[in-house]
Task: structure prediction
Amino acid sequence: MRLATFRVDGAARVGVVGDDATVTGLDDLVPGAPLDMLTAIDQWQRIAPALAEPPIRSGAGLPLDRARLLAPIPRPRRNLFCVGWNYAEHFAEGKSFRGAASPQEVPEHPALFSKNPATVTGPDSPVFHPGPRSAELDWEVELAVVIGTGGRDIDEAVALSHVFGYTVANDVSVRDFQRTRHGGQWFKGKNFDTHCPLGPWIVTADEIPDPQVLDISSRINGEPKQSSNTRYMVFGVARIIAELSNGMALEAGDVILTGTPSGVGFARNPPEFLKPGDVMEMEIGGIGVLRNRVVPYGATA
Result:
């Protein structure tokens, strides 16, 4: 099932996206269903059985081209958890970026950082160029995991049972801020406003029983930049959940970005960086395409 957050002439609602390119409000399908995704995730054990009952379903949905899709979770409750250097080829292409003091071999445990909730934006929404602050704006297509059942010290063997669903993420990064400022910490370079597009919807976990078999790619202005498969992750989704929950409780609605494959801008020869007007398309098989345009810093949506 594909679940989207959308807006039509008013407040945001959660909807079910059909194969006919329509979206139907969850509250139209299940009387009393919540209007926001986080509450829907919290109440999913009640909602899901009702969605399986044909008599509850209403008439035709709204065509997607008449609805404005927002990020599936427009404002996460907590920071988004992120994994760096999680594809071997991307780790290799980043050796010069990391510098001599950083690990030169794939580590035994994943590199972790976070993005704050204000970085989140939705499909077809503008992404701010940093303007005079930096010319090194980069793209990163990533599989994003949405937690459905929280827990602490989750065993890797059962970790996927804690997943609510999956969506597409773009871990937009300001590379010089990430590399050379603030003590070499990644946080600032990963946390400019609008620098975490998510969408276009969440595909529930029952539709993706194995998250390690998905094609993943990116295009800039229609030109292919990244092309890989999630089978090449160094640390799979289950391992990432186990690592993050080690001594730290995960909560329903938490979002985890699982890393990007090779082909990002800073590692190309010569390096390529985004500029205003560029269109980014991030695609994951079985989920969909997340599209965003880069706009000058401070431009209105």
Remarks:
- Residues 2-70 form one domain.
- The chain is about 15% helix and 30% strand.
- The chain has a mean pLDDT of 91.
- The radius of gyration is 19 Å.
